[in-house]
Design a protein that fits this description.
The complex is a heterodimer of chains A (about 525) and B (about 230). Chain A has about 525 residues and is mostly helical. Helix content of chain A is about 80%, strand content about 0%. The longest helix of chain A has about 35 residues, at about 305-340. In chain B, about 40% of the residues lie in helices and about 25% in strands. Classes of the chains: A mainly alpha (about 525), B alpha/beta (about 230).
Chain lengths: ~525, ~230
């Protein structure tokens, strides 16, 4: 036990840097605290909105079952993204596997690290919901005890499932020559299946005030922890609590045992690099420094599964969403037209704004550049020793990220332009938006990454999914997309024409981009040079 | 040549390099030695423009690394102690990348890559991805990449670590060849025998301070470099 505690302490030290409220210059920053408060406040407000109608039918407990299932899906999706990279082929493999400890212990330590992060992630959603419930319902001490155990134990089931899936993904992809690509494809397919089910769940929940008790019975019958939580909150029984704790711990032990059977074998297989023994003729090519830097960044992107999945998944969803709108448009609009709420002409007139909103959401929620500096890791010194201006290096990263995003977004635009009728000015405005919005998003990403670099990550997942930079970029992106969509709706409601709305928003973001670029030119280089590896 | 003038580098309140001054002349092999944590890598990173420093200046062929770092870097090549290369690239793509950064012409890079790849017995491996390489092979690729742009000054941090005996011999040959062409070599090492046989001048650093600098003859006198170093460490 002593050994395990020492190992956990040693392996967690680096990971916990994210929670230090100091930036690279040693200056204190309150940004992480502000972001946590904002996130919890937003979730709390949302929970408050949900509980209001539930209070009238005295079914407040449904809030808890909804948040339990939502966090299950969130943790599961997060887990599938991360598990392959957090469990396999880690930098400390050689150290840990050479120690006189069981291989199962190494697996346990890695799952424990994973658990701690998911626990904190879950708390962002569950804690506000639990607080809202406690404010709205007269609760006793039992509620707090049960909720504390729930907070601690709820991540276990999704973590065990996602680790098992991660093991399957790694085992499957290790059999292919192009392991990274195989990992990206298998993970993306799995995530799409989960998204399909969670979207269906959203459809069920969309009319939940009318079917609240029906929804609750679906959730509680499908997901045991939700059932247990509601049961213990409404009718506390210590036996139920003990059973719940035992079941979760047993599941964790069984999960670790199952994974440990093939863990070491999969881990060794993942590390294998297949190079042909035949001598290959190599090609010497000449490129300009800028092109060469962009090619280097593209190589990094397409060889980093977690990076590709994280960035690419939003873009894949964008194309799927656009395709669904195109094919299902008539059936979606039918119900509105039949209700007499709106005419088909009116719906058609909103299409450019809907598309623009969609482009905006995709652009701001896909931040590729927010990991690009951190992913350099120790090789950052290569860049710093090159006879190339730091602005060129920074701009090449920015150019790469928009080169990945813009063509996909433009492809979605073209599909919409073909399916629906747009006038030429609307087409032009949407194309400008599809270029300027990714530029703004990616410039913010790189500025944030220069301010909050994580150069000592143990693996790429830590950078892409758990670094301060990626989290801040997601928060900023989320805020910007919601504000922009809100402004779009407001302007549409006050009768401003589509073209004027798109023009105004485009102009606004062109100005923002120019200001960001000005800052990046000067401040970016300073931050770049301050990063010491 | 390299002129290091009163350079001080602090990490917080601790001086990692404390008011260090010495010159490395054109056409000499210069060894930089010191115990672990003495400040060797910090000073090397300052010379190569990787890290900034707090006081003093470093001139590379008369140009300040602080004010004119791009021009300074054009004259230099750097081989780090731990070759952290771009693991997903093939070796040839990495070398091409470095050549692109130094704007090496196609003919020059072909000539240099062929020459050094053959010398380090890596010509069959250039098409493989770097992540499949051992530490020594990565080190060889880092050295080939550094030499491929024909630098005037070669700076290396512990270049012999992880290399096989043949590669160590080859590097020493390359160093002699470069010096004959009037180029400058500055490297840190813990292998004092090699430093003693190879270098014309040496500097010894201890706890961030320069304790000795001069020709190998002056420094070691009638004894060995190892003895001098151990005496200084006591």
């Amino acid at each position: 036990m002593k050994k395990i505690i020492s190992l956990i302490k040693a392996t967690m030290t680096d990971n916990m840097n994210i929670f230090k409220i100091k930036n690279t210059n040693g200056k204190k920053t309150i940004l992480p605290i502000i972001l946590t408060i904002v996130c919890m406040f937003s979730v709390g407000s949302y929970a408050n909105m949900i509980i209001e109608p539930l209070t009238s039918i005295k079914s407040e407990y449904i809030l808890l079952s909804i948040f339990t299932i939502v966090t299950f899906f969130l943790t599961l999706v997060e887990g599938i993204y991360k598990s392959s990279n957090l469990l396999f082929n880690c930098k400390d493999d050689n150290l840990l596997f050479s120690l006189p400890i069981k291989r199962r212990t190494v697996l346990f330590i890695r799952i424990f690290k994973f658990y701690v992060f998911e626990l904190l992630y879950n708390s962002l959603f569950l804690f506000p919901a639990m607080t809202v419930y406690a404010i709205n319902v007269k609760v006793g001490i039992n509620y707090y005890i049960v909720s504390l155990f729930m907070l601690l134990l709820l991540p276990i089931i999704p973590i065990v499932i996602s680790c098992l899936i991660g093991g399957i993904i790694s085992s499957t992809s290790s059999k292919f020559k192009f392991k990274n690509m195989a990992q990206v494809i298998v993970t993306t397919l799995l995530l799409l299946v989960i998204f399909y089910f969670s979207f269906n769940m959203e459809n069920i929940l969309s009319n939940f005030t009318n079917n609240a008790s029906h929804i609750n019975s679906i959730i509680t019958s499908l997901y045991y922890p939700a059932n247990a939580y509601v049961k213990m909150v409404t009718n506390f029984n210590i036996i139920d609590l003990i059973i719940f704790i035992v079941i979760n711990i047993l599941l964790l032990i069984i999960g670790i045992y199952i994974m440990s059977i093939r863990y070491f074998k999969i881990n060794s297989k993942v590390k294998e690099e297949r190079n042909s023994s035949k001598s290959k003729k190599y090609i010497v090519k000449v490129n300009s420094p800028k092109i060469s830097l962009i090619k280097k960044e593209l190589n990094r992107f397409f060889n980093t599964p977690v990076f590709m999945i994280n960035a690419g998944f939003g873009l894949v969803l964008f194309i799927i969403g656009i395709t669904l709108i195109c094919f299902k448009f008539d059936s979606i609009t039918k119900s509105f037209i039949m209700d007499g709420e709106i005419s088909i002409k009116e719906i058609n007139s909103y299409i450019p704004i809907i598309l623009y909103g969609f482009v905006c959401f995709t652009s701001f929620m896909t931040s590729i550049s927010s990991s690009m500096i951190s992913l350099e890791g120790k090789s950052f010194n290569i860049l710093k020793s090159l006879p190339v201006k730091s602005t060129i290096i920074i701009m090449s990263k920015l150019a790469t990220s928009v080169l990945i995003m813009i063509p996909v977004i433009l492809l979605g635009d073209i599909i919409m332009f073909i399916r629906f009728s747009f006038n030429i000015v609307e087409i032009l405005m949407i194309i400008i938006g599809s270029i300027i919005l990714p530029l703004v998003s990616e410039t913010i990403g790189i500025i944030v990454n220069l301010k909050y670099p994580k150069m000592d990550a143990e693996n790429d997942t830590e950078v892409v999914k758990q670094s301060m930079s990626s989290m801040i970029s997601v928060f900023i992106g989320m805020a910007l997309s919601f504000i922009t969509i809100f402004v779009l709706v407001i302007l549409l409601n006050v009768g401003v024409s589509n073209i004027l709305i798109l023009m105004l928003i485009n102009w606004f973001y062109i100005i923002i981009f120019s200001l960001l670029l000005l800052y990046l030119n000067k401040g970016g280089s300073i931050d770049f040079n301050k990063i010491n590896v | 040549m390299i002129e290091i003038k009163n350079v001080t580098k602090k990490y917080g309140n601790k001086k990692a390099v404390d008011n260090v001054s010495f010159n490395v002349n054109k056409g000499e092999i210069f060894a930089f030695i010191g115990h672990n944590g003495a400040g060797k890598t910090t000073l090397i990173k300052a010379i190569t423009g990787i890290h900034d420093f707090d006081e003093g200046d470093i001139l590379i062929n008369g140009k300040s690394i602080k004010n004119d770092n791009i021009e300074c870097k054009k004259d230099m090549a750097f081989v780090a102690d731990n070759p952290e290369l771009y693991e997903n690239m093939t070796a040839i793509n990495f070398i091409n990348f470095i050549c692109d950064m130094y704007e090496v012409s196609l003919d020059d890079r072909k000539k240099n890559i062929d020459k050094y790849a053959k010398m380090f017995e890596m010509e069959d491996k250039l098409g493989d991805t770097i992540k499949s390489f051992s530490h020594g092979m990565k080190q060889k690729i880092a050295i080939i990449a550094a030499l491929s742009h024909n630098p005037k000054i070669l700076i290396m941090d512990e270049p012999f670590v992880g290399l096989d005996p043949k590669a160590v011999f080859d590097i020493k040959e390359v160093m002699h060849e470069m010096v004959k062409d009037g180029k400058t070599i500055f490297f840190s090492t813990h292998i004092l025998d090699v430093a003693e046989k190879l270098c014309s001048r040496v500097a010894i650093i201890k706890n961030g301070k320069l304790v000795k600098v001069g020709s190998m003859k002056e420094i070691k006198g009638d004894t060995s470099l190892e003895n001098v170093f151990l005496e200084l460490e006591e």
